Amino acid sequence: MAKSAHYSGVKPEVYNQLREKLQTMGLRLEGNNGRINEKGVSARYNYNPEAESLDIEDVSVGFPASMMLNADSLMERMNQMIVQYGGQPKS
User: For the whole model, what pTM was predicted?
Assistant: First the structure.
């Protein structure tokens, strides 16, 4: 089942730090919106710098990434990174 997450308070610096961290995991966010489909991870993302919001939708994890994590653990890691860098999950 695909997962989704929505964040507020995501300043441009926060988004750039998240992008850099995800890139070390082999996942590239190119621009402010698009689609990830790398290493078994797929998702859609939309970052709005004016509203300081980030929406990540349709997150799914397949092979080979599924050997190391699942969609829930990936979402938890992203939540931790966003909070660590100053953003907040939207309720």
Answer: 0.85
CB burial class (10 A; 0-12, 13-18, 19+) of residue 10?
Answer: buried
pLDDT, tens only, 12-44: 998 998 899 888 888 899 999 999 999 899 999
Domains in the chain, CATH or no CATH each = 3-89 (3.30.310)
CB-based contacts of 65-74 (< 8 A; 24+ apart in sequence): 65/39, 65/40, 65/41, 66/40, 71/1, 71/2, 71/3, 72/3, 74/3, 74/41
Which of 46, 53, 56, 75 minimizes the C-alpha distance to 9? Answer: 53
> pLDDT category, 10, cuts 50, 70, 90?
very high
Residue 58 CA to residue 78 CA, distance in Å, equals 14
Which of 21, 20, 15, 69 lies closest to 41, judged by CA?
A: 69
